Amino acid sequence: MNTVLQAHGLGKKYGRRWALTDCDLEVPAGHVVGLVGPNGAGKSTLLNLAVGMLTPSAGTVEVLGAPAGAQQAKVGYVAQDTPTYARLSIADHLRLGRRLNPAWDESLAQRRIQHLKLDPKQRAGKLSGGQRAQLALTLGLAKRPELLILDEPVAALDPLARREFLQDLMEAVAEQELSVLLSSHLVSDVERACDYLIVLVDSRVQVSGEIDTLLATHFRLTGPRRDQKDLPRDQHVVTASHTDRQSTYLIRTGQPILDPAWTVTQLTLEDLVLAYMGRDVQPERPVLEVQR
User: Fold this and answer.
1) DSSP assignment, residue 31?
2) Of 189, 213, 253, 266, which shows the fewest CB atoms inside 10 Å?
3) Is the pLDDT of residue 272 over 70?
4) Where is the ABC transporter domain (predicted)?
5) How far lies 197's CA from each of 53, 72, 75, 182, in Å?
6) pTM for this structure?
7) Which distant-in-sequence residues (6+ apart) come within 8 Å of 276 by Cβ?
8) Is the bond leading into 286 cis (omega within 30 degrees of zero)?
9) Rounded CA gap, 232 and 179, in Å?
């Protein structure tokens, strides 16, 4: 299977307001995919549709080759704010996971709880934010999913708890060889944990591709003022700014930049994400996808 999630013309409407409109998206298998976008881009709505918690108002979404919700046994989900049952103990959560999931890995769950030095008798409501997040991740991983979906699971955590969560996630990915879709507004977390990027703005995919390839094909050009139409055709302009004498372009190209008039600099992942998030939404198809 080449993709674990496919959306076509997907939309969700609440009353008169569309939270997601005409979204086309593909999430490749075998990657840790970072889904990044501004608030209101539709990220959480998309993920809730993908796991079957919401019903589409328009379009379709398939997960692991079947309509969303049909493969729940193969999909792990850690929702925003990592919700747990405050009055249930950690042991209660594991018993519940065992009863609800046919492929439940009790050994994995117990190993993680011991590794985290959590007391199985402790109620979830008494845990710290980082501990609740780790419990939620344990439940998702012990399900032995083919796809793990995480909706900003570390946004409210302190830097140390966030680092520990992402480290545990990366170790689990290496051990279980599962696909991951991680929604986040923290570019540093995506850079640390992900190898594939999707930037979503106003329900539209602005760019997608393997992070290493994206960084190798995007550049900032600074030099004497020049009109965009005078650039080579293989240099796709993402953003442009000008003064009276100087032009600065952020471009995507797979070809060498030979013009000596330009000062060429590499981009950081944050530079790249902010550039695509900050430009006007581009409705045309196909979206910008960088492939090897």
Assistant:
1) S
2) 266
3) yes
4) 5-227
5) 24, 24, 20, 10
6) 0.90
7) 199, 201, 206, 207, 238
8) yes
9) 38
